[in-house]
Amino acid sequence: MARGGVAPSWRKPAGALGIVAWIFVWIILVTSFSHWIGQLHVLAQLPIYVVTGIVWILPLGGALRWMETGRWRRPSGAQ
Q1: Average pLDDT, the chain
Q2: Higher pLDDT, 59 or 32
Q3: CB-facing half-sphere around the CA of 56: CA atoms within 13 A
Q4: I need a labelling partner for 20 at 20 to 30 A (CA). Which of 11, 14, 38, 65 fits?
Q5: DSSP secondary structure letters along 10-33
Q6: What's the maximum distance between 2 C-alpha atoms anywhere in the chain?
Q7: How far apart are CA 25 and CA 18, in angstroms?
């Protein structure tokens, strides 16, 4: 057992590997469309890459919550 009597959780290393895998999948997905995006005007490319650069973060909230609590969603009534 770890210090303080709490057993270490397997969720943190599994979640960290899952996050790294998600980042690689997202990179492959976005770069697979780069040929078509690259043909657009630079000002049309900008919002596409800004959105794709932010959207990948959204699923991480649930993953980080699961790593800490073992639940994917917030308990009802939680802020």
Answers
A1: 86
A2: 32
A3: 17
A4: 38
A5: SHHHHHHHHHHHHHHHHHHHHHHT
A6: 59
A7: 10
Task: Quote the CA–CA distance of 69 and 71 in Å, as a whole number.
Answer: 5
Query: At CA 31, angle to CA 28 and CA 32, rounded to 5?
Result: 80
Q: Classify residue 26 by burial, with Cβ atoms within 10 Å: 0-12, 13-18, 19+.
A: middle
- CB count in 10 Å sphere of residue 10: 8
Q: Cα separation of 67 and 15, whole Å?
A: 6
Domain ranges of the chain: 14-69
0.90 exceeded by the pTM? no
Residues in contact with 35: Cβ distance below 8 Å, sequence separation at least 6, in sequence order:
none
Locate 78 and state its tokens: 């939680």
